[in-house]
Specification:
This protein is α/β, with parallel strands linked by helices and 255 residues long. The protein has two domains: 8-145 and 209-252, 3-Layer(aba) Sandwich (Rossmann fold); 149-207, Single Sheet (N-terminal domain of TfIIb), CATH 2.20.25. It has seven helices and eleven strands. Strands 1, 2, 3, 4, 5, 6, 7, 8, 9, 10 and 11 form an eleven-stranded mixed β-sheet that branches. The N and C termini lie far apart (39 Å).
Length: 255
């Protein structure tokens, strides 16, 4: 099964504790620190169900969100319509998208870059990001941090959400591949009411973990320079083996 098909139906429930507002505050802190111009337009690569986009739109930014999953895009469109927000959601592959316009900032949140498994995938995604930025534009993304993944090792996870006399149970079983720098996260989601199973799905999400020097190399190859790598939501700090997710801030340089 492809990633984020039926999983999309449970996405917002499973991540209802995710603090999108705080993450958008963090993004605006980056804007203030590193942008040399006012930010008006934002392109979100791998927008999912639009959690960041709805908040950023409410703060006055003009947003375009892109995602490969038709199911995720449909949820995002429905949420924007319900809130009467004008957000341009586009179903497309971030490795090949061409919107034929420039944006002030490009974001790619919630480890979307770690879903780009091969070197070629990462370079293609970075190149597409560069094509949609003018010189000096910011590219902000987070990803799995290799030193932390190898130090901590992926662990089995269990998450239970109770809602309206129903339970949504998610099992996550990871398989680490050190040679290929990937983790296969095997998800099983069970929706149950009392002793009755209402739905059950299985998906495998393959995730790539990255190291600072390779990130620097990929960005340099696609005409970016790194401004900062920091622990997620901790601007100005240096990542350690305790930081599974890091934020990368890059600037588009002259072609």
């Amino acid at each position: 099964m492809s990633t984020f098909q039926k999983y999309a139906n449970y996405y917002d429930v499973l991540y209802r504790d995710k603090n999108y507002r705080s993450e958008c505050d963090f993004l605006e802190k980056i804007f203030r620190k590193y942008s040399t111009k006012s930010i008006h337009s934002i392109l979100d690569l791998g927008c999912g169900t639009g959690g960041h986009d709805l908040i950023l739109c409410s703060r006055g930014y003009k947003i375009t969100g892109v995602d490969l999953s038709a199911e995720m895009i449909e949820v995002a469109k429905r949420k924007a319509k319900d809130k009467k927000m004008r957000i341009n959601f586009v179903r497309s592959d971030i490795k090949s998208i061409n919107l034929k316009k420039k944006y002030d900032v490009i974001i790619s949140m919630f480890a979307v870059i770690s879903y780009q498994i091969t070197n070629e995938d990462i370079i293609s995604t970075f190149q597409r990001a560069r094509n949609h930025l003018g010189q000096g534009g910011l590219f902000i993304f987070d990803c799995w941090f290799g030193p932390a993944v190898l130090a901590q090792k992926p662990q089995d996870r269990l998450k239970i959400i109770e809602k309206d006399n129903e339970k949504i149970i998610r099992f996550a079983t990871p398989v680490l591949d050190i040679l290929n720098q990937t983790v296969d996260v095997k998800y099983k989601i069970v929706k149950a009411s009392k002793n009755k199973i209402l739905d059950e799905i299985d998906e495998v999400h393959k995730m790539r973990f990255l190291f600072p020097k390779e990130i620097e190399n990929y960005l340099k190859e696609t005409n970016f320079r790194i401004l900062e790598i920091c622990p997620f939501r901790e601007l100005g700090k240096i990542p350690t083996e305790n930081d599974w997710n890091v934020t990368v801030i890059a600037e588009a340089i002259k072609l």
